[in-house]
Design a protein that fits this description.
The chain has 229 residues and is α/β, with parallel strands linked by helices. It is built from seven helices and six strands; from the N terminus they run βααβαβαβααββα. The longest helix is centred in the N-terminal third of the chain and has 24 residues.
Amino acid sequence: MLPKHIGIIMDGNRRWAKKRLLPAALGHASGAKRVRSVVETCLRSNIEHLSLFAFSTENWRRPADEVSVLMGLFASYLQKEVDDMEKNGVCLKIVGDQSKFSEELQDLISRAEKQTQHNTKITLRVAANYGGRWDMVQAAQSWQRANPNASLDSLTENSLAPFLCTADAPEMDLLIRTGGESRVSNFMLWQAAYAELMFVDTLWPDFGKAELAAAIAGFVERERRFGGL
């Protein structure tokens, strides 16, 4: 059975650039170009949900000039790709704490989401200023605000889930990390609780249609038990 929800930690942009004696900015730019081919592959494979880890809550610790490049690439992506996403049936959702972004970037996000909101072929979630722990904390706070008189003892997994950033998505089936590292780096910890994990050596700017197709094929071959027999 094909995965309904694939998550990708897009890692390796800086190392890709370093290997080629290029500035990190060009590595990030090359990585941004890969998103289109991955979305196209998911569309052809009838994958309904794709979640990409673009910028974590911890990435603010990077040098200011690198963060500025990443924000610029994010804005450029929203401007250049949204029309094609609308035409191709892609519903774009940005998940994470947007309050730290510039007003201009927040406006671009809002317009892109509104323009693609009725598309149904695939939902593309881009996690920006996102962290799995942050998501669970904000969900608990939102639950409390919605239930001010409820006892904490009444909080359950089912009652908390609707307040997560991905409340409208199925749980993640397959989580891929590129770049050779073997950790999940605080990405959708709740949603990926039973995801099949794949760590590949390919750096993100080199991760294309063939690599994603191979990952999907590998997922299909796995037997999932969810803790049972």
